[in-house]
Structures are given as C-alpha cells and as structure tokens.
C-alpha cells in the first residue's frame, strides 16, 4: 500500500472492562483478556482480543501489536518493552493466540518483582483526508502480574 500522507497519532484509553450489551467508548481499541491471569512465566498464556466494539464504533483494526511494558514510573531504564505479538486484524473480529514467555529472559530473572502492563496497540485507518488513508493508533493498558511456575 502507498500512502500520500502518513500520520501517526497515539492515544491511550483506560482499560476496557467486561463487555456489556452496548459498546463502551473505552472498548474502541479492543477488549483484551488472557488466561491464566496472573501470567505464569514458562507456561502458555492464551490471549483473547475482541474487536467487535472497535468495529461497531468505527475503529476497525488494520494491525494489532502487543507489548509487555514496565511503566516509566517503575522502570530502571534497563527494562525495555517486550514485544510479544504483531497480528493482522482478525477478519472475524476476535483474535485468540498463545504465547509462552521465556522464564530465563534476563529482565525477568534480574527484576523478579517488576510491575508490568500489557499494551494492546490498535492501528486503524482514519477517513479524513482526500489523499487516501491515514493510519492512526490507539491502545488499551491492562496491568498484569508475572509469576514463576515454581512460586
Ligand atoms: C474470547 O472473548 C469473547 C468475549 O470478548 C468470547 O465471546 C469468546 O468466547 C472468547 N473466545 C475464546 C476462545 O475464549
Ligand atoms: C511504581 O511506581 C509508583 C509511582 O511511583 C509507585 O507508587 C509504586 O509503588 C511502584 N510500584 C513498584 C512495584 O515499584
Ligand atoms: C532456565 O534455566 C535453567 C537453569 O539454566 C534451566 O534448568 C531451565 O531448564 C531453563 N528453563 C527453560 C524453560 O529453558
């Protein structure tokens, strides 16, 4: 795809809560759940991202990106974002996939009590300019605890 103009805009929404029978504005970038929660390092984690409300509210995703982030307030400066999934938008509106985090990754072993958030970044096309598509991004933040299988 060729874009005459490409503009990246970021916005972060509050975490989405349980889906009701109407679409809350906070669900415009997706509803994310995962199991088990807390995440157990070294064991498979199944993520379930629903974009039904995103689509209904006019934010149909093109790409979705998932990172595990230590918030700036808690970050030593040596805890980079862990980029664990890049997904094309699911045609069905729901994307279920499994990830196993390496318990021996140095960041997990060096900072075993670190505080994390999962950021789901949803990229969608804004329909504002006459040149064509402008891709913009929004996201949801979900606080998460990581534990070791032996704990
Ligand atoms: C994923 O979550 C949706 C609700 O957002 C639910 O309807 C669906 O059954 C879930 N799918 C799986 C495989 O857990
Ligand atoms: C993270 O930072 C916040 C704000 O400084 C602080 O209140 C909280 O206790 C910190 N949590 C951890 C686990 O360091
Ligand atoms: C992590 O490292 C320990 C010690 O080297 C090893 O026994 C263990 O099998 C490793 N875990 C995985 C999941 O590779």
Please sum up the structure shown:
Residues 1-18 form the signal peptide. 7% of the residues lie in helices and 46% in strands.
What do you see in this structure?
With 151 residues, the chain is mostly beta strands. The chain has a single domain (24-148), classed as Sandwich (Immunoglobulin-like), CATH 2.60.40. It has two helices and ten strands. It has helices at residues 52-56, 106-110, and strands at residues 12-13, 31-35, 39-41, 44-50, 61-69, 82-88, 94-100, 116-129, 132-144, 146-148. The strands form three sheets. A five-stranded mixed sheet has the order 1-9-8-5-6, with no helix packed on it. Strands 2-4-7 form a three-stranded antiparallel sheet. It starts with 11 loop residues before the first strand and ends with a strand. The model is unreliable at 1-20 (pLDDT under 50). Bound molecules: 2-acetamido-2-deoxy-beta-D-glucopyranose (NAG) (3 copies). The site of one 2-acetamido-2-deoxy-beta-D-glucopyranose has 3 residues, from loops.
For this entry, give a set of tags.
151 residues; mainly beta; 5-stranded mixed sheet; 3-stranded antiparallel sheet; 10 strands; globular; binds 2-acetamido-2-deoxy-beta-D-glucopyranose
Secondary structure elements and pairings:
Layout: E1 12-13, E2 31-35, E3 39-41, E4 44-50, H1 52-56, E5 61-69, E6 82-88, E7 94-100, H2 106-110, E8 116-129, E9 132-144, E10 146-148
Parallel strand pairs: 1-9, 3-10
Antiparallel strand pairs: 2-4, 4-7, 5-6, 5-8, 8-9
The structure holds 2-acetamido-2-deoxy-beta-D-glucopyranose (3 copies).
């Amino acid at each position: 795809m060729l874009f005459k103009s490409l503009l990246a805009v970021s916005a972060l929404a509050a975490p989405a809560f349980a889906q009701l029978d109407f679409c809350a504005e906070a669900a415009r970038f997706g509803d994310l759940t995962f199991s088990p929660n807390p995440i157990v390092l070294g064991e498979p984690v199944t993520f379930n991202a629903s974009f039904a409300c995103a689509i209904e509210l006019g934010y149909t995703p093109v790409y979705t990106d998932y990172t595990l982030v230590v918030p700036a307030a808690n970050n030593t400066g040596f805890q980079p974002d862990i980029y664990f999934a890049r997904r094309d938008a699911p045609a069905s509106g729901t994307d279920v996939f499994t990830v196993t985090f390496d318990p021996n990754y140095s960041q997990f072993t060096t900072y075993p009590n670190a505080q994390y958030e999962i950021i789901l970044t949803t990229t969608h096309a804004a329909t504002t300019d006459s040149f064509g598509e402008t891709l913009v991004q929004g996201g949801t933040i979900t606080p998460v605890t990581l534990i070791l299988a032996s704990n």
